[in-house]
Specification:
Elements (H helix, E strand, L loop, with lengths): L14 H4 L2 H9 L2 E5 L3 E5 L5 E2 L2 E2 L8 E7 L2 E7 L8 E5 H4 L5 H18 L11 E4 L4 E4 L5 E2 L4 E9 L4 E7 L10 E4 L6 H13 L3 E12 L4 E10 L12 E8 H5 L19 H10 L3
Parallel strand pairs: 1-6, 11-15
Antiparallel strand pairs: 1-4, 2-3, 2-7, 5-6, 8-9, 9-10, 11-12, 11-13, 12-16, 14-15
Bound molecules: zinc ion.
The site of zinc ion (ZN) has 8 residues, from loops.
Amino acid sequence: MTRPALSRATVDRDAATRDDPAALEAAWKQARVLVVEDAHALVLDDDRPRLVLQDSAGAPDGERYYLGRDADGPVFAVAAPVGRRLGARRLGLRDVGALLDDRDAGLLTHAVGLTNWHATHRRCPRCGAPTEPVRGGSVRRCTDDGSEHFPRTDPAVIMLVHDGADRCVLGRQAVWPTGRFSTLAGFVEPGESAEQAVVREVAEETGIACWDVEYVDSQPWPFPASLMLGFRATCDPDARPVPADGELEEARWFTRDELRNAPVWGGSGAGVQLPSPVSIAWLLITGWVAGG
Ligand SMILES: [Zn+2]
């Protein structure tokens, strides 16, 4: 089965090294470093897109986060300005997440999620004192009361709702250009299971009831900290989706034929456009269209 674009990581996160300061320092000396600035990194795309990884000796100053190791050795992320390199461009996951190879897609996704979290958790939620990264950047610790704070991930559900036959329901947000449609989605609320969130979100966004909620796949979506849990669900073929909670401007039925050759967002033509291949929405839609 095709993996979601951002769920292809190959690097071992090597949690044991995070807790061993000497091993961490030794790893840094041999490390390749991915510099991340505001969720972007330098990407060479002369041949195929690939991340610029530099030797730790020449890496810019900044907080260091251990990403793990593969056959070529350890890899760290450093939060710092990416600078310039001949032939390289400053790009983000939405630009190249689906084009990078498995290792690089995984590294950039991990690094972006981690740096997003560090950048927004500089203070202790208990006492307001500054926090500092510890354990290879897998934790921040309060410099006053010593409390430890872990990276946050927000679960969200995203679902392909179909009639059990040849039609599915997609929606369109008012801010999207005409023609762009995608699967329904929303955040899991406290005290709620993912399956319950699917049923609630579909009802809130379109007014229709669904059932037979079936898990498909998941992928991290660090914009800034989501984990997208992908589902399929069945609804009444006679249901009439109506935008209900103000989030969607339009929600309607599509047949497989209408979606089969539709271009992705940004494509040409006046017809329906599908979300980018970097999103799990694309995988849910194209997988269903293919009959899988
Ligand atoms: Zn504190």
